[in-house]
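Retro notes - structure team

What went well: the batch runner handled both jobs without manual restarts.
What didn't: labels got mixed up in the shared folder, which is why I'm recording both outputs here explicitly, each with its sequence directly above its tokens.

Job 1
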Amino acid sequence: KESSAASDVYKRQEFKNATNHEGGMAAMLTGSGTASTPGGGKSIDQHIASKLGGGKRFDSLEFGVQTSAWGAGVQTRMSYSAPGAYVSPDDDPRSVFRRIFGDVTGDPGEVDRALVRRRSILDLTRGELTGMRDRVGAAQMHKIDAHLESIRTVERRLQGAPDPSSVGGSCDEPTPVMALDLQANDSYPAIGQAQLDLMLTALACDATQVATLQWSHTVGQTVFTWLNQGDGHHNLSHYDRSNQSGIDAYVAAERWYAQRFLYLLDELDARPEPLGEGTMLDHTLVVWAQELGDGRNHVCTDVPFVLAGARGVLDTGQHIDTGGAPHQQLLVTLCQAMGLEDQLFGDPSHGTGALSGVLRA
């Protein structure tokens, strides 16, 4: 399915001197930087957050989907605040919601009960919003109302309440996210959807300018049972072309991830930019990354990335073969797309400056 928002740049990168899952994961967002190289060994998300995060409630927010079972290590973490200093994603939507919007404290069980029974956080701010209407005008208030409704929808989902705007589909009572086993295999799609919606809402409410979502981790064995599959994702990635059914299953699993990415783009494009012109997608750079180019051979060359959004900044709608250009140039490109002036990031011995043909002149 093509998206009306599919303004994307697709490119393949080479992670110099990185091999296997661990090396790819460590280099994917850091460019193999150290404390003495440009960026100080941070991952690109944390570097950009350190430059742009001031004045927001959160410099950055890290969302995860079943990322905690193996603990923090080079196989399970993609974000770094310094060399070897992991920035761990939160893979519990309830915890994320409390952190961004909650106003309750206590032990986890009591927090969950309080979250269920307390009045909507939106109702508590109704008076402030009414006063704001007079200050910003009807057109801008319409945008604010749309974002507030998106928060209310997320809150209903987390608490297991039906969404009154939904029509059709199953009439079964929805399963509250709170009641799910967050590490159970079959919870994977529901947790991922909740995290996507929370990330969208956090961005819409201007709680942060930088957010990441990590699905599982390297060597992840998630079984896509909702696609009638029986093998883990990592196993699927190692099937060779003699196993056509295995290849087909792997393609189906990757298509499922692509549909999640598409959902994110479509939702950003459907939401007006708060107190600005156009849609959120117009003002958002979205990057889909992975750590390996060929999972069967564990190599970190020919690694595909997708860049979307940032209309007017990206030269979109194209596929680029960078011819083995160093990965560090892609990370510099991301910096410049976000308005920074970096010419170096990560290990500078592998390349400087931005990739050609990605950013509009």
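Job 2
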Amino acid sequence: MADATPSPLTSPLHDRHEALGAKFSEFGGWLMPLEYPTGVVKEHAAVRGGVGIFDVSHLGKLVVRGPGAVEFLNATLTNDLHRIGPGRAQYSLVVDDATGGIVDDVFTYYRDDDHVLVVPNAANNDEVRRRLVEAAPEGIEVLDHHRDYVVLAVQGTRSDEVVAGVGLPVGHDYLTFVEAPFEGAEVVVCRTGYTGERGYELIAPSTVAPALWDALMRAGEPYGLVPAGLGARDTLRTEMGYPLHGQDISPDITPNEARLGWAVGWKKPAFWGRDKLLAEREEGPRRKLVGLVSTGRAIPRPHMSVRLLRDVPLGEVTSGTFSPTMKKGIALALVSTVVDDGAEVMVDVRGRPEVFQITKPPFVQPSVRES
């Protein structure tokens, strides 16, 4: 019998990554660069101290358009699109109406009242689209452009010079975007990113992806631009305390538990999961997502148990890694609310109890908002 498992999708830039010697890993149904011969630590350091470039084309791309598209999305997603306006981006959540669990976290790009780009995580693109399609009133379209566009993230202190070097506009405010021409195509230039550093995410038609990648690589040469993979993206986002869906947030975890209440428009009259989340907020969640910092040399990993010093179970690590910036083990963990920030806890690291301190992320001071 033939194997029915579908082959992973690849980026339009797959050959470029192969030529650079990338090591690949399957992620969300896509085969994407995990790291290059430079290695995760050097790629991480390049972003923190200079500039790196990521191909994150596995991210979903859903266009919601039609009369009242913004009003429709505002009645479904958690955050309040009325807080922003055209040309601005916003972090939001797709929550299950019955359970309050996080189906996905997304970015919305508000083009105009009748046109919004929604960017889900790769593995959740189809599920987010399904839910939006089922809820959409007549006249609202939800179009899937997952494979029609690439997303390139240029991140780091020298990102302005690199993006400007290919003729694209820079210098606009954090969480804003502009559209500009490149090789006859329109590129969306977003002041967003997943690293905590100043940077841009470029959303471009797949047809111009190779030309855009090559141009950015050339423009970045004077600034030491380094291609970076999903390994460095993970260490960078963990240092910021940014959650990863499927680990730190999931359908089994609510926004209240994940401390993402800031991404909820609590005064809105309607959004998916509103009643459930308001009731939980009033009562108080029983779990919370916290940061952990090793007091020694231990490196935590997902699913390691977290306990109080007197051996009382608290929860488990959801994301854990070695911080190249801090030179320490750090983690995100979902634990009981009975423990306070600043407390010392024990993490079972391969059978050895290791001491960690609870803290509130970010672990490293971000510069993403710097002008």
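One thing worth noting from job 2: Residues 66 and 140 are 5 Å apart (CA to CA).
We'll revisit the folder naming next retro.
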